[in-house]
Amino acid sequence: MKLSAMACAGLLAASLSVTATEEKSHGRHYEVTITNITKGQSFTPVLAMSHLPKTTLFTLADPASDELETLAEGGDVGPMVTYLSGFTHSVGDIITTDGLLGPGESVSFEIDTSFVFSRFSMVAMMIPTNDTIVALSNVKFRNFTATYYAHAYDVGTELNDELCASIPGPVCGGEGVGVDGGEGFVHVANGIAGHGDLDSSSYDWRGSVARVVIKRVTD
Q1: pTM of the prediction?
Q2: What pLDDT, on the 0 to 100 scale, is given for residue 180?
Q3: CATH 2.30.40.10 fits 17-217, yes or no
């Protein structure tokens, strides 16, 4: 199952919070380390979860859910956490982090899973952007250390005007709610064009934007 009718929904090491559900597994424990590998983008609080294989945070080419829109435009993971917490038979552990993860910085946390909740997904807003996320979707927990590279996705809910008035965070300080008129579906992001207030030489990216290392730890 997916987490919405269409699609539901990449920091500082301190202040980790864990939301447990009735189905939370205590069978296996993993350490996850996320590293920002961009030169000019920061990540807002990360939301990570263990879940069933058929559960997805979003689907490419489908419209974004309201919860993903809120996360992608303003960095607020609260509505998504509330929504996911209702799926106790599909979602195991839910982890959120506080603060920003700047270029070259890493954050680590532990997450619980099991044979049932065998997949891992994570998502965070990238700033400064209008509605772009870093995400890693539906990768399998392994018994060995595995390294993945997460990409950037535009959720298609906001016009990419690149104006600071509609972009939150320390670079722009905007409202985090921009002009409607986005593409209408989740797609691979094409970076910063430099046609608004953002300098593409400082904030643009190409290829992967985060390294995610998932390591089994002692039970």
Answers
A1: 0.87
A2: 78
A3: no
